[in-house]
Design brief:
It is a single chain. This protein is mainly α. The protein has one domain. Helices cover 79% and strands 0% of the residues. The longest helix is centred in the first third of the chain and has 37 residues. The protein starts with a helix and ends in an 11-residue tail after the last helix.
Length: 116
């Protein structure tokens, strides 16, 4: 009985840690991939509330992808890198982390990213 209870608590604990880690991974990805164009996360994320961010990240981030691909003109090295990222395999895998980050710090949550 105690072993089952311990296993249950460990499983639930790991589940919470992995969910929370996604928020931090989304913040790290934002700093690495988005900071040069969008500026600090604090100003960017607080600009929209959770329901507005939900529109951008639904369907594996199709709306984010569409907006970014329209704005890339391939004139700079940053634009070429961005095009490779958004057309590549990594962006679809990262969308869930961006979603967790955006939802955690959206304007209607009252949460503020610790450091930018």
């Amino acid at each position: 009985m105690i072993k089952k209870l311990s296993a249950t608590f460990m499983t639930v604990g790991l589940l919470f840690v992995s969910v929370n880690a996604s928020v931090y991974k989304g913040h790290a990805l934002f700093q690495k991939k988005c900071l040069s164009c969008h500026g600090k996360a604090l100003e960017f994320v607080l600009d929209k509330d959770t329901s507005e961010w939900a529109v951008f990240v639904e369907n594996k981030g199709d709306k984010l992808l569409e907006i970014h691909l329209k704005s890339i003109d391939e004139e700079t090295d940053d634009d070429v890198k961005a095009l490779k990222y958004f057309n590549g395999k990594r962006f679809p895998k990262h969308v869930r982390h961006y979603k967790d980050f955006l939802f955690e710090y959206a304007g209607d949550t009252g949460n503020i990213p610790a450091c930018d």
